[in-house]
Amino acid sequence: MAETENARGGRASRVRPVVLCALWLLAAAVVVHRLAAVLDLPGGERLTGRPAWLDDDGLPLHSAGGFSGTPAAALLLKAVTAVTGEGAAWACAVLPAAVAVAVIACRALPAAQRTWALPAGIALLVAAIPVRETVTEARFDIVAVPLALAGWLLAARRPYGAAFIGAAAALQPALLLFAPLFLLTGRRNAAVLTAGTFAAVTAAAWALLPGDSATFWLHHLAGAGLEPAPDDTANQSLHGALLRLGLTGPGEIVLFTALAAAVCALALRRAARHTTDGQPLLAAALIGCAALAATPAAPQQAQLWLALALAGQVGRRTADRPMWPVFVVLALVVPGDALLPKMDSLAVFADNIPLICVLLATCVLRFLPRESESWSHPARAGLASRPNLLLELALIRVGYWAYSYVRGYVRGDRETVEAHGHQILDIERFLRIDIEHAVNHFVADRPWLADTMDVYYGTFHFAVPLTILGWLLVRHPGAYRRARRALAFTTLFGLAGFWLYPLAPPRLMPGLGYIDTANGPQDLDDPRFGALTGVTNPYAAMPSLHVGWSLWCALVLWRCAPYAWLRVLGFVYPAATTLVIVGTANHYLLDAAGGVLVVVLGFATSRAIGRALAARELAAGAAERAGGGDRLPTRA
């Protein structure tokens, strides 16, 4: 047993420096990229939403400039701006607040997790939408997050830590929820200190900004001041969600108040339980999330509390354990419309993805207690087990969004892509396989055939692979894992081809007589290049992923289909797809060959990774057998 542990420790020591180096490089790249984005802005756009007093025009704080923070936040912002100025210096003042959240949170993690969690946390928080979209806004609410978190963790050892929470509540009043949490966990003095510090800081701000304080506390909070716009998706509070649903007036205020009270009560109860269970970071996350949901006009930076909920463990199987972390990361980093299809019926969910995660954390999810056996020993799901369905759907959707984004981003200039098109045609003439023109005109001269191929080209490409993936997930989960991995690498290699060799398809080659059967003649002087090419990258032709994905379908059916005729019929699909892409003038014949190549590379890479995973699974089983009774259960 000792030898096995030493061997595993030796492997870990060889891998860990590489992984840590990669994580730190990623964190540094994200921070530098965010600063570079600020520097690229014109000087007047590097700091927006300034309070009126920054312009020295004498207007009241909440009547101009678009500033909606508390008077205490206004004072802090004024002091920081006086020191740092605007632009990149302001970003240099805001980004450390996000980094501080990661540093403080990692202090509450077990020592074994801190080394990799710190760079990963910095990269996540700086790349998160609440930071990257607000780094130029004149709001200093983000300081409340590390301030309250540090105070909560410090108060466990030093009573004066509660004073930091009181100061944070002066910036975001909803953070006073920490005071009843102190009471529920038997720390009355900390609760009193929190409330007292909040009162003292607020009183000082009132003395320095009396008019603005009266405007905020009496006018704004009474509902007659700044009101979040109904379509403001940055406000991920319950109030903002109700407004986006079209609810207004006194009824909406009553409903919001009732929902906010229920969320806060549940969050306090669960946070108290996790505090006594030895999970203070999760408890702080739940209170911060509840404060976000209960704030009428929640600042976007408050969504960083959701990242701290990653400290909680959800799921008793290893296959289910990544579900919650993946959802949180996607909610923070990816736009809501990328997580769900762009359908009107789903827009209400896409607009409220962070709030949905907040409500899941505070009211729904059952985070594991530390004494649970599944906390450190989840049931090991083998390579043949069924993956988590929700996780798979999320990854497929985000994967397609990323594929569409990269495909649309990698465009070449017209001269280059047309030159590549002539190169392809020259090679085909040399090989005597330049059949595109003849096949295209044969199809175009028969409208029924052209219409059939156009429908085939636009629908089968997605419908068939998704159908096969769904069938594998239900009937052959082990084969599903292998097939999904091969499809992912096939697509990745295809994207590399789009990037390295942008190519004009036949329908966009001027003067060669090809006919676009779907859109008619293309006006090459129009930068949109017709209806179809206005919504996609017209130069993502080499390789043809239509052929690549169809060949993937054929190979999967050949391995897994229960009937011989279906296995043979599967290869009719890529042959028909090749005919369609040529007949509709969307690809050259060599593009189809490129599609075959990326499929071969995708399956080869997937197989290599599968062997490595199988070897690790075998080693884990051997270690468990050597450990005797310490064997983990395995569930399908």
What would you note in describing this structure?
With 636 residues, the chain is an all-alpha fold. The chain contains 29 helices and no strands. α1 packs antiparallel against α3 and α26 crosses α29. It is elongated, with a radius of gyration of 29 Å. It starts with a helix and ends in a 10-residue tail after the last helix.
**N-end to C-end Cα span:** 27 Å
Task: Tell me the β content.
Answer: under 5%
**Biggest sheet, open or closed, and with what strands and sense?**
none
Number of helices: 29
Helix amount, in percent?
Answer: 55-70%
Rg over C-alpha atoms, rounded to the nearest angstrom: 29 Å
Structural class: mainly alpha
Order of helices and strands: HHHHHHHHHHHHHHHHHHHHHHHHHHHHH
Number of beta-strand segments: 0
Spell out the blueprint of helices and strands.
Elements: H1 2-39, H2 71-84, H3 88-107, H4 111-127, H5 129-132, H6 144-155, H7 162-171, H8 178-184, H9 188-208, H10 210-224, H11 238-244, H12 249-276, H13 280-294, H14 304-308, H15 323-333, H16 336-339, H17 347-350, H18 353-364, H19 373-376, H20 389-409, H21 414-431, H22 436-444, H23 447-475, H24 477-500, H25 530-533, H26 545-560, H27 564-570, H28 572-583, H29 589-626
Helix pairs in contact: 1-3, 1-4, 3-4, 3-6, 6-7, 6-13, 7-9, 8-9, 8-12, 9-10, 11-12, 12-13, 13-18, 15-20, 20-24, 23-24, 23-26, 23-28, 24-26, 24-29, 26-27, 26-28, 26-29
